[in-house]
Write a structure and sequence with these properties.
Blueprint: H1 2-9, H2 12-25, H3 28-48, E1 57-62, H4 67-77, E2 80-85, H5 87-96, E3 101-104, E4 110-113, H6 118-134, H7 157-187, H8 190-196, H9 201-229, H10 239-260, H11 267-284, H12 299-304, H13 306-320, H14 328-348
Parallel strand pairs: 1-2, 1-3
Antiparallel strand pairs: 3-4
Helix pairs in contact: 2-9, 3-7, 3-9, 4-6, 7-9, 7-10, 7-11, 7-13, 9-10, 10-13, 10-14, 13-14
Subcellular location: Membrane
Domain ABC transmembrane type-2: 125-352
Organism: Sorangium atrum
């Protein structure tokens, strides 16, 4: 066993992985983007979207006959903050978002609101209920209410956000970390030297994947520890399933990184290709909001993206406790992406 380990440590592939790790550790800015930036970003977004008590709806009441009784009725509801203002000012407040709805001075009252804004639709319900009750309407029944507690873990925005940030970090370090490193080696004629050596070519590409796995463990553990210990993000599923999803995702994006680095001879070229590949996934793959918000017509494209599959699998394990069988379709899609891009990279790779 000891002899086998010594032989493995002295193999050309192991030496290449060690060299790649050492190269990375000499770049402090890379360490910042891999380990510090995700934690800073998740902290800032957790503060921005922290749990807060529901704010009352701001409503403008047009000056005129009956304005003051309507203001008093709305204020008595406790759910609305009304202000009596002239019509021109009310229109401006509605247009700029300072008021969610305007009650016009007509009889019966007219509700002026924007149906495209959720807070405006909510204001219409609250205002109508308050004014109807003030006019003498009696409710047929009073339903019971069961509210979700603010502190319930797993349902907060930060709980949704952390798996997305983890998936995004795996994507960025896989694509940029491997793609830029290979192009730099091509520019510095190192690839040409490797080709002249007796070492198999596949080992050079595999060494980038191996080094990627070394850093994957560190970046995933660092972000998850911060999320669990500081932000209180739950991990409902097994850690083994979570680790498997992260490894499959990292290998998938490593394949993408190898493919986009197969041809470029300049850093500008790899930067353009990297932005072209990562930008659609930044927007569409559910990092900051659900991918389901996009129209049905483009859902096949959205669901085929590897980052969408990775984020869905991470959220399934972390928030829903999903077993591997439940996330098998997402894992299969990641494997297809990784295998296809790695095979294309081997075929298209330019060594000089």
């Amino acid at each position: 066993m000891a002899r086998w380990l010594r032989s493995l440590r002295a193999s050309s592939l192991a030496l290449l992985i060690r060299a790649r790790v050492a190269e990375f550790l000499r770049e402090p800015e890379a360490i910042f983007w891999m380990f510090v930036f995700p934690i800073l970003l998740s902290s800032a977004l957790a503060v921005a979207f922290r749990d807060q008590p529901a704010e009352p709806v701001r409503v403008s009441v047009e000056e005129g006959a009956g304005a003051e009784p309507r203001r008093a009725a709305l204020e008595a509801s406790g759910q609305v903050v009304p202000r009596v203002v002239p019509r021109a000012q009310a229109q401006q407040e509605l247009r700029t978002g300072k008021a969610a709805l305007v009650v016009l001075a007509t009889d019966p009252p007219t509700y002026w609101f924007d149906p495209a804004r959720p807070e405006s639709r909510l204001a219409r319900l609250e205002v109508d209920q308050a004014l109807q009750r003030a006019a003498g309407r009696a409710d047929a029944f009073r339903p019971a209410a069961l509210e979700v507690t603010e502190a319930e873990r797993g349902s907060r925005y930060v709980d949704f956000l952390v798996p997305g940030l983890l998936g995004m970090n795996v994507m960025l370090t896989g694509i940029w970390g491997i793609g830029v490193a290979i192009v730099q080696q091509r520019i510095g004629k190192l690839l040409k030297l490797f080709v002249a050596s007796p070492m198999p070519r596949w080992q050079l590409l595999a060494s980038h994947l191996g080094a990627r796995l070394v850093f994957l463990a560190l970046e995933v553990v660092a972000l998850l520890l911060f999320a669990v210990l500081v932000l209180g993000v739950p991990i409902a599923g097994s850690l083994a399933a979570l680790a498997l999803v992260a490894v499959v995702g990292a290998l998938s994006f490593a394949g993408v990184g190898l493919l986009i680095a197969a041809r470029p001879r300049t850093l500008e070229g790899i930067s353009g290709l990297g932005n072209l590949v990562t930008f659609p996934m930044w927007i569409c793959s559910g990092v900051f909001f659900s991918a389901d918000r996009f129209p049905d017509a483009i859902q096949p494209f959205v669901q085929a993206l590897p980052l969408t599959a990775l984020n869905d699998a991470l959220r399934g394990v972390m928030l829903e406790g999903a077993p591997l069988a439940a996330i098998a379709p997402e894992l299969a899609l990641l494997v297809v992406w990784g295998a296809a891009t790695f095979a294309l990279a081997l075929k298209l790779f330019r060594w000089e």
